[in-house]
Design a protein that fits this description.
This protein is mainly α and about 230 residues long. About 50% of the residues lie in helices and about 10% in strands. The chain has a 3-stranded antiparallel β-sheet, with helices on both faces. Strand 1 and strand 2 form a beta hairpin. The two termini are about 35 Å apart. The N terminus is likely disordered.
Length: about 230
């Protein structure tokens, strides 16, 4: 049944993405497995969206990135965060493909990690940072949601973190990421329509509000500690 649902849903994916998925070039990058079942985020994110978002959209970014790097051995050896930070050094012929597909791979890899069933609440040093930099979780949510609503078309809203632990809200278009400027992402939400349209249609605001129910604060706290230790990659 799930396989039929995924195949039927491929009609919603752009032709170029379906072609890249079908070709599935081998390469240094791979699709990470979801850390939970596709139905684990119900009712806030539906199962079919998760199947398509992870199994089709994210897979297409991985395949597109491997296709772009197949004749560029030195670039293919770079860790993803370093590859994105060095976009300007890449051959012009692959720069856009790496930007779009590498950014999509990094953003989605982060996205699956910072979600999970059960939610929870920020604690410890992370909670203190949220209170210091935003005035508390409720104010962070308000500012984050407002920023997400302001994204025109497709893009992402992120909370970034620097090596001192300072937090900030930023947005990026398409599959761009703060990694491209050498920054680090604490967590972020995907505001492309494919992330929410099956369940929320054009109600992006409802999706943004509901998304907080599936934020895995324990994982976000680990990312915060890693950022301050200098070990957070993507």
């Amino acid at each position: 049944m799930q396989r039929r649902m995924v195949l039927a849903g491929l009609a919603t994916i752009p032709v170029f993405a379906r072609q890249v998925w079908a070709q599935a070039p081998a390469g240094p990058h791979s699709l990470p497995p979801l850390p939970y079942p596709t139905n684990a985020l119900e009712p806030h994110i539906d199962t079919r969206t998760m199947e398509l978002h992870h199994g089709a959209h994210h897979r297409a970014y991985v395949n597109g990135l491997n296709a772009a790097l197949k004749d560029h051995g030195e670039a293919a050896k770079l860790p993803l965060h370093e590859l994105l930070a060095r976009l300007s050094e890449l051959p012009e012929g692959i720069r856009t493909a790496v930007r779009n597909n590498g950014g999509g791979h990094a953003n989605h890899t982060m996205f699956w990690q910072v979600m999970g069933p059960g939610g929870g609440q920020p604690t410890g040093a992370l909670k203190e940072a949220i209170e210091r930099d935003f005035g508390g979780l409720e104010k962070l949510q308000e500012q984050f949601n407002a920023a997400g609503l302001r994204v025109f078309g497709s893009g992402w809203v992120f909370v970034t973190v620097d090596s001192a632990g300072k937090l900030a809200i930023v947005t990026r278009p398409n599959q761009d990421t703060p990694l491209m400027e050498g920054g680090r992402v604490l967590f972020g939400n995907d505001v492309w329509e494919h992330a929410y349209y099956l369940l929320y249609q054009n109600r992006r605001g409802d999706y943004l509000k509901a998304w907080w129910n599936v934020v895995n604060w324990a994982e976000v706290g680990k990312r915060y500690d890693a950022a301050r230790a200098g070990t957070l990659a993507i």
